């Protein structure tokens, strides 16, 4: 069976916008959940501008977070790498969970400042769930 390079390239181009949309929404949701924990239902007031401005919001949050910026700025680089990796390879949904978790960890400081216990519980649960999901995914689908 021959592999047609034109067909492979056209399939990759056809799926790229959908993969981009999934990555954008996963990261936007990951960045929005700490705002939801911090502000409750008032966080939905800013949701309309938040999703289109998501990359700018993450970068500003990372650089304006005082001591948290030491952790958040390197996470910006990791999330950029993960987004590129998700866009260019045939990864499963666990990569979206990693993107969600990284965006969550970048934006988590305002949630910790406002409501510490629920935010720490949610962030710990997110990290543990992501770890086990990625571990299971790597066992099922070795690269």
From TrEMBL:
The keyword Transmembrane applies. Keywords: Membrane, Transmembrane, Transmembrane helix. It comes from Oceaniferula marina. It comes from the Bacteria. The chain crosses the membrane at residues 12-36, 56-81, 93-110, 116-134. This is Uncharacterized protein.
């Amino acid at each position: 069976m021959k592999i047609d390079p034109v067909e492979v390239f056209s399939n990759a181009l056809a799926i790229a916008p959908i993969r981009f949309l999934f990555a954008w929404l996963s990261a936007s949701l990951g960045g929005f959940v700490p705002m939801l924990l911090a502000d409750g239902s008032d966080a939905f007031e800013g949701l309309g501008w938040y999703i289109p401005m998501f990359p700018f919001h993450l970068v500003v949050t990372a650089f304006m977070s005082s001591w948290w910026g030491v952790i958040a700025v390197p996470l910006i680089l990791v999330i950029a790498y993960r987004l590129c990796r998700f866009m260019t390879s045939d990864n499963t949904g666990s990569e979206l969970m990693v993107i969600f978790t990284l965006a969550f960890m970048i934006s988590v400081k305002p949630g910790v400042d406002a409501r510490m216990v629920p935010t720490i519980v949610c962030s710990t649960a997110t990290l543990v769930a992501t770890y086990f999901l990625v571990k299971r995914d790597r066992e099922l689908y070795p690269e």
